Structure formats: structure tokens, C-alpha cells
Amino acid sequence: MEERIDHMKYLPDMEQIDSDIMDRVISAMNDYDPSLYTESDVRRALEHDEKTVDDFKALLSPSALPLLEEIAEAARVETKKHFGNSVNMFTPLYISNYCENYCIYCGFNCHNKIHRAKLNAEEIEHEMQAIAKTGLQEILLLTGESKKMSDVKYIGEACKIARKYFKVVGLEVYPMNSDEYRYVHECGADYVTVFQETYNSDKYETLHLAGHKRIFPYRVNTQERALMGGMRGVGFAALLGLSDFRKDAFATGMHAYLIQRKYPHAEIAFSCPRLRPIINNDKINPKDVHEPQLLQVICAYRLFMPFASITISTRECQRFRDNVVDIAATKISAGVDVGIGGHDGESEKKGDEQFEISDGRNVDEVYKALTDKGLQPVMSDYIYV
Ligand code: SF4
After folding, report:
1. What local confidence, expressed as pLDDT, does residue 249 receive?
2. pLDDT in tens, 27-45
3. Which helix (H) or strand (E) holds 126?
4. If you measure from the C-alpha of residue 372 to the centroid of ligand 1, how many angstroms do you get, rounded to a whole number?
5. DSSP code per residue over 178-203
6. From CA 249, how far away is CA 207, in angstroms rounded?
7. Which member of 8, 37, 123, 379 lies 3.0 to 4.6 Å from 61 by CB, making a disulfide possible if both were Cys?
8. 3-class DSSP state for residue 359?
9. Residue 287 has pLDDT above 80, yes or no
10. Which residues have C-beta atoms less than 6 Å from ligand 1?
11. Torsion of CA 347, 350, 355, 356, to 10 degrees
12. pLDDT in tens, 44-56
């Protein structure tokens, strides 16, 4: 049997920063027992103008589920207070699906036999031109996690091209050291999203069997290294359904909250992914995280962190996405293709998909769905002078 490396020990090329945030998040999560909260705790939480950490715990507990309608209404009020009726639109672009990690729930994992591909600079530019033509002004660049096949320079070059066509450029690639973040930021990246997947390190170990991603603390400290490297924003997420989703959602919120307190200028964002079936394995599913539970988590994020951006991805269906942007989410993807290439609708796709998407609407269709609901689609709220 393949020998597994110690998931709590940094590898030599990994930067170690001086931070107590991981320990504080883990110890708060370990102390959290969702079953201890009652309906009156939830009602008390709803009455507070500013939600405390304990309120957040109550809002994520099973006792909050029967009050979901009231919670959603409170979240809607909070969202309108800070974001009006605007909803940001963007699209992800997968530029490479090579991956050296073995995450057992993901279609890109190094043992899954799929078509691997990587776009060259010319192909990236071609894809971006096609995306820019749809009117989008924000792009999220994604890769599988292979520093060998998509090194920092390759990602930097992709950011430089993206900068020519888009006002906002996000990255969802392998975690980097702060000097590497500084470099890709100088190339044009504005924000970094990293999914922690689960904050339960024992569970994490059983799901991430090989590769750099196996090192738990290096991943948890990614957002901080990104901010140290000059990034304007950082995104957080647990992949709901991998472990106890209530505790994972709590840890995700706590992580974001502590980072916000330490770096008040940071733009904080949440993603709310649930497990999806993957290529060669359609048995993977979100287990006990059904739509009401997912909505509960999203509303709890909104009420605890009123200014945070919340993204709703195409893992969810059209109906759910259209409803949740009217309640708590502030960012929605459109025209999504999770394979490699093919955005122009003409060239052949080069590589396979990461997971199955549920909402395949193009930019115009999502735009129209938003305006039909009286919402204002926003392509970018940054003005460059
Ligand atoms: S989740 Fe990310 S790191 Fe893990 S196998 Fe998939 S692409 Fe690679």
C-alpha cells in the first residue's frame, strides 16, 4: 500500500506563517455542539441587530430549520440593506485539469482516468475573447492543482491576458506562498478562492490521500498568505456533505470572521458548494445537505457576515439559484463550462469536466432571469481611472 504522508506536517517548499487563526477556528468548531441549541436561542439570535458567534451557532443548528422562512426573510432584509438589488455576474474558466492530488470525491483527481488538457496562451486568449463578447467583466480562472503542469508563471500569464478583457480577475488554483501570490497579483489577479473542503482534520486526512493538498494547515492558512501577498479579496468554502455540514459551515464562517477582524480591508466571500456526481462516479451526492439545509447555511452566513459576498454556483439548479439571489446570495455564475475549452461554441473541448453542473444557462438567460425578478445584474463594480 502507498505510504501516506503526515497531513499535519508542512512540506519543505511550503511557507509557514505566524498565525493562530487555524487553532482558534478548530477549537471553536470542536466546542460547537449544534444539538444544544433550541428554538428560543434561534429566536433570540434573530432579534439581535448584530449577530454574535453564539447566534451564528444557533442559526446553523437543527432547531433553526423549522424557522427557515423567518430566517430567510431576515437574510433578505440584511442583503437588501447592504447590496440593494444588485447581483454580480461572472463566469469560471478552467484553463487546465491536470491535478497531482488524490481527493476521492473529485473528477480531476490524479487516479481518475479522464482526458487531461491545458490551454496555451493563444487558446486562453481565444476563450476570453469569446467570454468577453457575452458582456461579462469578471472572470474566475481555475486549474486542477498541479504546480508542475500549471506553474505560477503559467497562471501569471493567464492573469495578464485576463486583465486585457476583464475588470475583475479571480483565481481558484492550488494554494501558493505569499511571494507567489504577490507575483500573480501583480499580473492582474484581484482575489483568491480556496475551498477548505472540511475543517475536520481527521476526516480531511481520509479524503485527501496524496499530493500537496493533503497538508491540512497549509491549506487553512491560504487566505492569509493571499492577503499578505496583496490580494484584495479572499473566498472561503467547505464542501458541504463531506463531513458534519453544520460544524463545517460554522468553521467556514469563523475562519472568515477572524480573517476579517485581522485584515479589516479584506473583501470576504463565501461559496456554498455541495457534493456533485463526478465523471466515473455518479454515486457521490450531498447526503444530508438538502436544499433547505443549504439555504439555512447561506442565510446564516449572510446574517453573521452581512457585508460578505456569497456566490451560488451551477452545482445548484436554476430554481434554487434564482430564489437564493433574491434572499442572500450576491454573485451568480453564468455560461459555465467546467471542462477545458469550448467557450466559443465552435472549438472542441480539450479536457473532461470536474463535476456535473445543474444549471447550464448562458449569460443572457441568467441576466434575464435576474431582471425578471426585479434584480439588477452587475458586471463589475470597479471603475479604473
Ligand atoms: S478537488 Fe481540486 S485538488 Fe482535489 S482532485 Fe479535484 S482539482 Fe484536484
Report:
1. 98
2. 999 999 999 999 999 999 9
3. helix 121-133
4. 36
5. HHHHHHHHHHT--EEEEEEE-S-HHH
6. 18
7. 37
8. coil
9. no
10. 99, 101, 103, 106, 108-109, 144-145, 213
11. 30
12. 999 999 999 999 9
